[in-house]
Amino acid sequence: MIQITKNLRNHLLTFSALGLFGAIFSQASAQDEKTLLGAGSTFINPLFSKMFAEYNTKTGIQVNYQSIGSGGGILQLTNKTVDFGASDAPLNDEQTTKIGAPVLHIPMASGAVVLTYNLPGVTASLKLTPDVIADIFLGKITKWDDKRISSLNAGVTVPSFPILIVHRSDGSGTTNIFTNYLAKVSPEWGTKVGSGTAVNWPTGLGGKGSEGVSGLVKQTPGAVGYVELIYALQNKMLFAQVKNLKGKYIVPSLASVSAASNIKLPDDAKVFFTNSDAADGYPISGFTWVIIYKEQNYGGRSAKKAQNLLQLLWWNIHDGQQYATPLNYSPLSKGALGVAEKILRSATYGGKPILK
Amino acid sequence: MEAVQDKIETVPARKIKASSRQVRMESVFRQTLVIIALLVVILVFGIMLTLIVESVPSFRALGIKYLWGRTWDPVNNLYGAYPFLLGTLLTSFLALIISIPFSFAVAVYLGEYNTKGWFSTSLRNIVDLIAAVPSVIYGFWGLLVLVPIVRNFEIKMGILPYGIGIFTASLVLAIMIIPYAAALGREMIRLVPSSLKEGAYSLGATRWEVIRSVILPYTKSGLFAGILLSLGRALGETMAVTMVIGNTSMLPHSIFAPGNTMASVIANEFTEADHTVYLSALIELGLVLFLVTVIINMVGKRIIKRFTNE
Amino acid sequence: MNPASIKFRIVKSKLLQVIIIVFAFAITLPLIFIIYYIFKEGVSRINWTFLTHIPKPVGETGGGIVNALLGSILIVLVASVIAIPFGILCGIYLSENRSGRLSYWSRLTVDVLQGVPSIVIGIVVYFWLVKPLGTFSALSGSVALAIMMLPILIRSTEETLNLIPPTLKEAGLALGVPYHKVILRVIVPCGTSGILSGAILSVARIAGETAPLLFTAFGNPYLSTNILKPMHSLPLLIYNYATSPYDEWHELAWGAALILLFTVLLLNIITKITTRRWNVQL
In chain C, what residues touch A215 (CB-CB under 8 Å)? Predict the structure, then answer.
């Protein structure tokens, strides 16, 4: 009698354990299609964070976006561990070869890379010229009260603090936009350091993500770093006005970024517009792209998943754009939108276009 | 006589079947134990193998010169581990130097001055709890509380007020590794035979002189092993260091400058190492870290084993 | 004998005693300081919203940490389910086989495993699970944590069982009880509190680990129970929020740190109470 009930108990336990696992796993696969995984740019993270929260309320699709830096996003997409990557730097040649299959760059929005600083006693926005910025980051200008800075800012008393550079410690599209600009305006920077998502900085402290950089600048007196505009705004930090190609000092803002980004996009949307020659354009701005594989049938992805992804991206460039302006990102211009739509329509599943 | 023999010879068939099943279960059990022990061995060798295999591209591209290369330049695909080796050694040894007086004091106090009683038990428990606090919490506290303090100190000293840097990282590390040398040291000191100590007392030595000339020489190797264990812990510590060290791949020019350790550069750059050689260079760092910490730990444990068996 | 020199030596001895006591008790300061600080900053943050809501989008106030809380619990649970049977069985093997080649190598590798930095384990599990499966997952995070739990489990099980007098096992075997029943029904239950405290200690050890989760569990802003997909956890949350510039996130991190610290310390204290009976060196 005891033997029977013990056996029965053991069997019951095994079946219920199996049943539990089965329930978890089956719920898992149903859940799976309604979850999308993305990773990359910290530049666009505040905007994506808002967009995806709204999209979830609207459609119930969960988009798990991790801001690990543009370099990280591209790598994880190459490893096929995410559904889409986000980057402020389009794939370079080596990355294109490594990823093997054709990818699509879909522009999402553009933003400004601002020079944010922390100077005790200074509440004004400093004016900086391209050569001064380059020399600060090259380590040639080491104090805030250097003549070259004070001569540009007559009305402001700048304290005699040492300049502490804060740069990105991770692979960053923001770095890419910034160094792209620096290479254009300073030949010395171009030869000495170059441009890319991670460069060999001549000096400075490293912060992880735009979050890390703004965190460090906020806490360190005398620090200057480069982050996306919204990080400086949300944290009530000061940022500089930069002299553009046309000689005007431009305050980074929604308007000045839109002025700079109003260019004709090539068909593949891979373009930089730093050091723009627009009269009111802010010279250090750039696009963020979402990057996906052109052919979505890989690694056992279902057609439904691919469709969810494409619908998400379609929404991003249409209805989602309304969230850009309040966060000071510049939404896609009409021309850019046209190019983006065409690119999205070219995505296929098993050779057939996904979006009708 | 015959009745007993009858009882011995006739075993019911049911019992034979049950006992052979039992024998099978026994051997299954034994085999399971053996397999699991084997799996643990395979696991560790697997870890080592994975590290080696994934380091190969870096080794092939950069050779052994990687270890003393000074440039870490992902743009030009040039990697050199020297800044991180230096950062790791600097932070670990600095942390060790700061922590040794404290570990020593705790070990001597608990092992010699006050070995029993609730006072000493509470101290011992507190020291153990220091080791239990997760490293990310040390990093968090260090970042928000210790860094401003160090920054103010640097401003007063006229140094670049980063706040973050090798010095701060060493401070946080020092706190974290105190328990290892302290706990081991206490055990070693308690093992000193009282006959030796009593002999010294009877010759007129003071308490301190007994410690200095009897206990310390006797436990020398044990204390050294404790220091090695602390060192091993410090070398591999990742999170707390990453949060306060400054994350720059330049050679640190002073202990107040920012830097990077092998563990923290891996944590920062692993998820975005987009060239094969880049990723492989990071893993090679992991391999070096693995080998160094393992060797130090093993040496420490050997010394302890030899000491407690004497 | 010069009386002055004796006095000097005695004074020196007393002086050094004071110095040692001061140093010894000085190290309690950082711990008390840390606990106090986290308590002060975190306790105000913990409320019902905090414990039941997911984080708000970047820059908005409100929100909570329920996804990280649940994620931590799930990941640790799965890790324990994987590691505990493994660890205990291996510990049994080692205590039953004091000598022998497999024993020697097993012990050696357990020692090695104990010293491996957690970030290295994260790297290895990335290559073993994340890359082949094509996705970050809570499961790979659990596997990494399980690997870290093993040395503590194995070591504590082995030492607990070593303390049990061999006469118990011999008596069982002499009575004809099969070997596996002797071990599983007699010896192991005898060592329950030692093994249990080893298990609790191993859980406390990994509950706060961040590095292995960086490249495996990855993080997730939503509440999820799917272990085959990324999941958030308390240590990851603290790491991300602490290094950010948002004051709101700092506050969330303090609250999360309080919960984590409290849990880990509690587990350690429970372990101490249970080991007192055994005097096991864990």
Answer: 243-245
**Buried b vs exposed e over C40-52: b needs ≥16 C-beta within 10 Å?**
ebbeebbeeebee
pLDDT at B44: 93
Give alpha helix (H) positions in B205-261.
207-210, 216-236, 239-244
| CA angle (B137, B297, B294) in 5-degree steps | 90
- Count of other CB atoms within 10 angstroms of residue C56: 17
Q: pLDDT (tens digit, 9 = 90+) per residue, B6-65?
A: 555 566 766 666 678 878 888 898 899 999 999 999 999 999 999 999 888 888 888 888
The answer to whether the CB atoms of C238 and B137 lie below 8 A apart is: yes
Q: Does A293 touch chain C (CB under 8 A)?
A: no
Mean of pLDDT values over A158-163 = 86
Q: Does B73 touch chain C (CB under 8 A)?
A: no
Question: Which pLDDT tens digit goes with each residue over A27-45?
Answer: 545 556 788 889 988 888 8
User: Any CB–CB contact under 8 A between B84 and chain C?
Assistant: no
CA triple B275-B279-B283, angle to 5 deg: 165
Here the tokens at position A325 are 């302006």
Mean pLDDT, residues C105-124? 90
Select from A206, A257, A260, A195 the least CA-distant residue to A230. Answer: A257
d(CA C145, CA C216): 10
Counting Cα atoms < 13 Å in the Cβ hemisphere of B95 gives 34
ipTM score for this prediction: 0.85
Structure tokens at B42: 């395979």
Torsion of CA C110, C116, C119, C125, to 10 degrees: -40
> Residue C223, exposed/middle/buried by CB under 10 A (0-12, 13-18, 19+)?
middle
What confidence tier does A157 reach under pLDDT thresholds 50, 70, 90? confident
Cβ neighbours of C218 in A, within 8 Å: 66
A297 touches chain C (CB under 8 A): no
In this prediction, residue C282 has a pLDDT band, given cuts at 50, 70 and 90, of very low
C 227-246 residues with CB < 8 A to B? 235, 238-239, 242-243
The residue-averaged pLDDT of C38-59 equals 79
Between residues 110 and 149 of chain A, which touch chain C (CB distance below 8 Å)? none
Query: Any CB–CB contact under 8 A between B97 and chain C?
Result: no
> What's the pLDDT at B97?
93
Single-letter amino acid, residue C214:
L
